[in-house]
Amino acid sequence: MFYMNHILERIVNTVAEAEGTDPTALPPLYETIDPDAINRLIESQSADSEMTCVVRFEYSDHEITVDETGAVTLTPDGGTRPELRD
After folding, report:
1. Once rounded to an integer, what is the mean pLDDT over residues 4-21?
2. pTM confidence score
3. Rounded distance between C-alpha atoms, residue 65 and residue 71, angstroms
4. What is the layout of strands, in order, in the sheet containing 72-76?
5. Reduced 3-state DSSP string for the chain
6. Distance between CA 71 and CA 44 in Å, rounded?
7. Using CA atoms, how far apart are residues 47 and 33, in angstroms rounded to an integer?
8. Distance, C-alpha 51 to centroid of its chain
9. Nearest-angstrom CA–CA distance, 39 and 70
Protein backbone atom coordinates (compact mmCIF):
# COMPACT_ATOMS: atom_id res chain seq x y z
CA MET A 1 0.00 0.00 0.00
CA PHE A 2 2.85 2.39 0.79
CA TYR A 3 4.35 1.88 -2.67
CA MET A 4 1.02 2.58 -4.35
CA ASN A 5 0.49 5.78 -2.36
CA HIS A 6 4.02 6.87 -3.25
CA ILE A 7 3.32 6.45 -6.99
CA LEU A 8 -0.04 8.21 -6.79
CA GLU A 9 1.46 11.05 -4.78
CA ARG A 10 4.27 11.35 -7.32
CA ILE A 11 1.74 11.57 -10.18
CA VAL A 12 -0.24 14.36 -8.51
CA ASN A 13 2.85 16.27 -7.37
CA THR A 14 4.45 16.09 -10.83
CA VAL A 15 1.33 17.50 -12.49
CA ALA A 16 0.94 20.18 -9.82
CA GLU A 17 4.54 21.26 -10.29
CA ALA A 18 4.13 21.40 -14.08
CA GLU A 19 0.99 23.53 -13.70
CA GLY A 20 2.46 25.72 -10.97
CA THR A 21 -0.36 24.91 -8.58
CA ASP A 22 -0.97 23.19 -5.29
CA PRO A 23 -1.66 19.43 -5.55
CA THR A 24 -4.96 19.91 -3.70
CA ALA A 25 -6.16 22.23 -6.49
CA LEU A 26 -6.07 19.37 -9.02
CA PRO A 27 -9.07 17.12 -9.69
CA PRO A 28 -9.05 13.88 -7.70
CA LEU A 29 -6.93 11.26 -9.46
CA TYR A 30 -9.55 8.56 -8.80
CA GLU A 31 -11.95 10.43 -11.11
CA THR A 32 -9.54 9.70 -13.99
CA ILE A 33 -8.15 6.24 -13.26
CA ASP A 34 -8.63 3.49 -10.72
CA PRO A 35 -5.68 3.83 -8.29
CA ASP A 36 -6.04 0.16 -7.31
CA ALA A 37 -5.57 -0.83 -10.96
CA ILE A 38 -2.24 1.00 -11.10
CA ASN A 39 -1.20 -0.72 -7.90
CA ARG A 40 -2.15 -4.18 -9.18
CA LEU A 41 -0.29 -3.68 -12.45
CA ILE A 42 2.88 -2.40 -10.81
CA GLU A 43 2.80 -5.12 -8.13
CA SER A 44 2.36 -7.79 -10.80
CA GLN A 45 5.55 -6.53 -12.43
CA SER A 46 7.43 -7.05 -9.18
CA ALA A 47 6.38 -10.70 -9.25
CA ASP A 48 7.41 -11.25 -12.89
CA SER A 49 10.54 -9.26 -13.68
CA GLU A 50 10.63 -10.51 -17.29
CA MET A 51 7.47 -8.65 -18.23
CA THR A 52 7.25 -4.94 -18.80
CA CYS A 53 4.24 -2.80 -18.12
CA VAL A 54 3.39 0.76 -19.04
CA VAL A 55 0.21 2.51 -17.97
CA ARG A 56 -0.80 5.64 -19.89
CA PHE A 57 -3.72 7.90 -19.17
CA GLU A 58 -4.86 11.51 -19.45
CA TYR A 59 -5.02 13.57 -16.28
CA SER A 60 -5.49 17.32 -15.98
CA ASP A 61 -4.56 17.95 -19.65
CA HIS A 62 -1.40 15.83 -19.45
CA GLU A 63 -0.51 12.37 -20.65
CA ILE A 64 0.80 10.40 -17.68
CA THR A 65 2.94 7.30 -18.12
CA VAL A 66 3.83 4.97 -15.24
CA ASP A 67 6.24 2.16 -15.99
CA GLU A 68 6.94 -1.12 -14.19
CA THR A 69 9.51 0.54 -11.94
CA GLY A 70 7.00 3.12 -10.78
CA ALA A 71 8.70 5.95 -12.69
CA VAL A 72 6.26 8.68 -13.72
CA THR A 73 6.54 10.54 -17.03
CA LEU A 74 4.40 13.57 -17.72
CA THR A 75 3.84 14.97 -21.20
CA PRO A 76 1.90 18.23 -21.34
CA ASP A 77 -0.99 18.20 -23.79
CA GLY A 78 0.52 18.88 -27.19
CA GLY A 79 4.04 18.86 -25.76
CA THR A 80 6.93 16.86 -27.12
CA ARG A 81 9.36 16.72 -24.20
CA PRO A 82 8.36 14.56 -21.23
CA GLU A 83 9.40 15.26 -17.66
CA LEU A 84 10.74 12.25 -15.76
CA ARG A 85 10.25 11.68 -12.05
CA ASP A 86 11.92 8.80 -10.21
Report:
1. 88
2. 0.73
3. 8
4. 54-59, 62-67, 72-76, 83-85
5. CHHHHHHHHHHHHHHHHHHCCCHHHCCCHHHCCCHHHHHHHHHHHHHCCCCCCEEEEEECCEEEEEECCCCEEEEECCCCCCEEEC
6. 15
7. 23
8. 19
9. 10
